[in-house]
Amino acid sequence: MPREIALLDALVPSIFLALLVSVVLQVALDKVLGRCGVYRYVWHPPLFRLSCFVCIFGICGLLVLR
Amino acid sequence: MSFPYTYSMKLRLSRVQREFIAWGKTEGLGWIFVFKTTIAALLAMGISMRFELGQPVTAMVTVYVIMQPQTGMVLTKSLYRICGTLAGATASLALLGLFAQERVLFLLGLSIWVGLCTAGAALYRNFKSYGFTLAGYTAAMIALPLVMQPTGFFDYSVNRVTEVVVGILCAGIVSDMVFPRSLCDSILLTIQGRYAEFNEFAHAILSGEMEPQEMDRKHLRLIGNVMNLESFRSSVLLEASEIRSHDLTLRRLNQDFMAMSTTVHSFYQLMNRLKKADSPATQALAALSGSVADVLVTEGEAARTADQAQQAEMRISAFNTAFPQQVEIVRQKYDSFPDSQANLDCDTALELLCRFVQELHDYTGTYASLMAERQSKRPFDDVRFASRTDPTVAILTGARATAVILLVASFWIASAWPYGTSAVMMAAIGSALFAPAPDPALAVKMGLIGVLAGFMVSFLCKFFVLTSLDGFVLLCAGMVPFILVGPYLSLNPKLATMGLGYSTMFCFMISPANNMQYDPVSFINFGTALAIGLAAAAVIFGTFAPVTGAWFKRRTAHMLRRQVEMACFETLPGLTHRFESGIRDILHRVAAKQNSQDPHDRNILDWMFIVLETGRAIIHLRQDADSIPLSQPLLDSVNKCICSIADLFKQPNAQHYTAAVESVDSSINVILRESGQEELDRNSRDAMRRMLTSLHLIRASLMDDETVLAATVTGSQATLQGGTPYAA
User: What residues pair up with A10 in beta bridges, in sequence order?
Assistant: First the structure.
């Protein structure tokens, strides 16, 4: 994929789209994990959530920029 | 020999430990917040500098504005802040595109935009109001620095929006990661505290130990509590925790709580009137209400833990089943009164007590289910919190903001002041940010003090400390001692706006950048312009139709009376909750101050009590009238009675007053006549009796010659002169 894409004629880094996608994925994952009660077994739920997001965003970003 | 020595050491150590733990639970929490805010602000500054965004100060100010002790509050505030920022950026694009050449039209358009946003902020509550505030001042922050070079709009606004988002992310992540303090805990604490407080309040009323002056204060505290819980509840949405699944329970809890406090207050009023009239029923009623008071507490303590709540629920449940028998005994004893008036008095008081016990049972059930983290079994109906704002007041608030900006802008144009942009910008920020406060004039004044302090401190920091330091780490180290002050001040609710003013001003004045500018002349010019902009806001807020003034208070009383009209004519489903929450919402400004010394505030409170009492009675009357088939004459007379009461509260005057009392009397007579008929079944007989008690309650509060209603009707505004005792 190109490094930048034209969004309404403004150049936007394509990693921005990866960010939006990973936010959606993260919200979905958060719902599922919360429903299953996983957070009760985690020491620091916010930290766990942030780490999940970093992993997801990292994967999406690598896929986009590879 | 060594034993006593070690022992005393141990003792001393444990004392030190205990002291330390106690400090950590109170003062320590505050310091954690202070350090979290500072870390977030410095992180935002560092990131903005690393990415060369131009003005790291925007990111820092964002952190200070949205930082709150509870994580959920920060996240919710962030969401609205992003939306508000985007709306503001769009508005500034429109303004610059339309009027880049025309300064008068441009400033007029800007002031109208800020005014509209401020009006919107006054119309809504909590974070919605915050979104409006931001949309207002972001437009000013983006559009004003660009008036001289409008072609740079796109890059400039992209940088500003990016900085705002960086600030929001830093604040959100730091507050969520470093010693997070979840909103869930605060909500549980609030609810527990309130349960205990209400039990104490109801206990004092029912056992007849309540001082009238104490009563007002307590009631205001309870209203403040309702508004608090509602604001917490509305911001819990973005916090991922268990409490989110209890959203309906929380709403329910607030609803039950309001209904209960109204009932207990009506009972208090009625008992006062009975005592004054020396009614023979008083004694037995006092004994009965004493027994209700006893069931509220276990061994003098209100329930705090889940177990205690369970026990309280069971105890009240048992009491609730046995209570009708006790009531029946009292009723039979007094049914044989020759005087039908005393008979009705007694009936009404008993009805109120029964209702209170039922509501108490519901509330304790909901409370216990929340504490035990299980879902309440009861079905939910429409329990949305109604917010009521006087549109006139919202428009005036907006007009005030517009006036501030126009004043500063015309001074700028007339004097060709080089720093006019900064002054107008600060006037816009100040009037948008502080307008939704309970007392905007005071908030701006405190903010101004903070700004002046920040101005002086930042001068010291910038020209005596930072000049001899080099590099990012030393920049942070040089600033930390000064920026710790702001968040610490804002921990105290009274000094919160002062802390905000201090932090904002300090960041603006230091304006850390990759290429720092050290120019004392422009520093002082810029700082003076900012302070003058805010001072203009303070002057206008204090003089132009201030919300603490008499006019506003009269409007509030008017809004309260409108609630009775609503109770008379709106559709029944969910009406009780809309009515109760609407009244609490109208009073939130008064409740925020929690002192009833001001005669105008007293006047509003007196209106609130009578409106609550009458409005609730009317709603009950309508519900009971709906539940059974009524004969045509009775239906007509009840409808006429409701209309005449609505008229009275619309325009309280002697003529409407006589009409209302007459129609209530005639309705009572019609019901008395009809309920004597033989062919009625038990159901309709009960409903008729409840209607009768509702009507009697309305009549009693109309006839009371010490209420503010009586004072208004007879034209003697005695309560307004102050000094009158509690109007029963």
Answer: A7
Tens of pLDDT, residues B345-382: 778 888 888 888 888 888 888 888 777 765 555 555 55
**Number of domains comprising chain A:** 1
Measure the CA–CA gap between A36 and A39, rounded to whole angstroms.
8
Q: Do A34 and B240 touch (CB under 8 A)?
A: yes
With a CB cutoff of 8 Å and minimum separation 6, the contacts of B51 are B162, B166
Q: DSSP letter at B223?
A: H
User: What CA–CA distance (Å, rounded) separates B604 from B594?
Assistant: 13
Q: Over the range B93-102, which residues count as b (16 or more CB within 10 Å of their CB) and which as e?
A: bebbeebbee
Q: Is this prediction's pTM over 0.90?
A: no
pLDDT greater than 80 at residue B29: yes
User: Is the model's pLDDT at B103 over the cut of 90?
Assistant: no
pLDDT of B111: 93
Q: Which CATH number applies to B550-721: 1.20.58, 1.20.1270, 1.20.1070, 1.10.3470?
A: 1.20.58
Q: How far apart are CA B528 and CA B638, in angstroms?
A: 66
* Residues in chain B within 8 Å Cβ distance of A39: 240
Which residue among B71, B154, B173 places its CB closest to the CB of A50? Answer: B173
Domain boundaries, chain B: 14-181+389-543, 184-238+241-371, 550-721
**Side-chain half-sphere of B569: how many Cα atoms within 13 Å?**
12
Position B140: which residue type?
A
ipTM of the prediction: 0.88
CB–CB contact B177 A30 (8 Å)? no
Q: How far apart are CA B242 and CA B249, in angstroms?
A: 12
Three-point CA angle B301, B306, B311, nearest 5°: 60
Domain enclosing residue A11, as ranges: 4-65
